[in-house]
Design a protein that fits this description.
The protein is mainly beta. The protein is 14% helix and 36% strand. The chain folds into 2 domains: 34-168, Galactose-binding lectin (Jelly Rolls, Sandwich); 177-256, 2-Layer Sandwich (Phosphorylase Kinase, domain 1). β11 and β12 form a beta hairpin. The longest helix is centred in the C-terminal third of the chain and has 24 residues, at 204-227. 34% of the residues are buried.
Length: 258
């Protein structure tokens, strides 16, 4: 290796992305829609995780996991990846404090997550437990400046544990597995329009009813958030705009009303 011939100061300078590598965009205005919980807040002993491989050379990767408002999620990760393999700069999902990152304030090279397209990114690292404060798909990525992912190598495996698949939750929720079939969810706060899609698994009627109930909960939660109310979710006002069923995927488009 030629690394031993590089002065330590210069090596640190190179590995840190010159300390001046800007993120691809500003994250300062992205809404915080999760709360971090202490370790052990979710007992994962009897929860079968959903495992996803997260590549170092790709930005936000959709895990295909839909998280419900109020759901507790625990993620633990393992593996190795590098933002600069030519310099033998490797780490696990915990990253390295000397490296530059896409999201300021989070360890460079660490595994990061966000809930929904517009959720504020947060650090996962080796493990993290959090509670969702909104509905959304879970996205994961390596915290490396997204403009310079082309030379990254490696991957980590993220094991995603959802409270809704635990024994205690299952007894209370007859749809405990339903949201695992959801493949996409989008909601625009400005236009109040959204869409949600799920695999029908040859049971279109039941899946449609499930999606309708989710839209009602989403509409209610958006209304409650705006009015700062504390009433329980009982189904909000919404208008179905369109629905389609292609290749076993049912999609409903809607608009919340209040």
């Amino acid at each position: 290796m030629y690394l031993k011939f590089i002065p330590p100061v210069i090596l640190i300078f190179l590995l840190s992305g010159c300390f001046l590598t800007p993120p691809s965009r500003s994250y300062s205005k992205d809404p915080v829609n999760i709360s971090i919980l202490k370790a052990g807040a979710l007992n994962i002993d009897h929860i079968k995780p959903v495992s996803r491989n997260i590549e170092a050379n790709k930005n936000w990767q959709n895990t295909g996991v839909f998280i419900e408002n109020g759901e507790i999620t625990h993620i633990n990760a393992s593996g190795s990846w590098s933002p600069a393999p030519a310099m033998a700069a490797w780490s696990g999902p915990e990253g390295n404090i000397l490296w530059a990152g896409e999201v300021p304030g989070i360890t460079g090279g660490a595994l990061i997550a966000k809930l929904g397209h517009s959720g504020h990114p947060f650090e996962i690292g080796l493990a993290r437990t959090f509670k969702a404060q909104d509905y959304g798909m879970l996205y994961l990525a390596m915290n490396d400046p997204f403009r310079f992912l082309y030379d990254n190598q490696g991957k980590v495996t993220a094991d995603i544990h959802l409270s809704s698949t635990g024994n205690d939750y299952t007894k209370k929720n007859t749809h405990s597995q339903g949201h695992l079939n959801i493949v996409s969810y989008h909601y625009n706060e400005k236009t109040r329009k959204g869409s949600v899609a799920a695999r029908t698994n040859n049971n279109t009627f039941s899946v449609r009813q499930y999606l309708i109930s989710k839209i009602g909960e989403i509409a209610s939660s958006k209304n409650i958030a705006i009015q700062a109310g504390k009433e329980p979710l009982q189904g909000g006002s919404y208008e179905l705009l369109n629905e389609s069923n292609h290749n076993g995927i049912l999609e409903l488009k809607f608009k919340t009303l209040w």
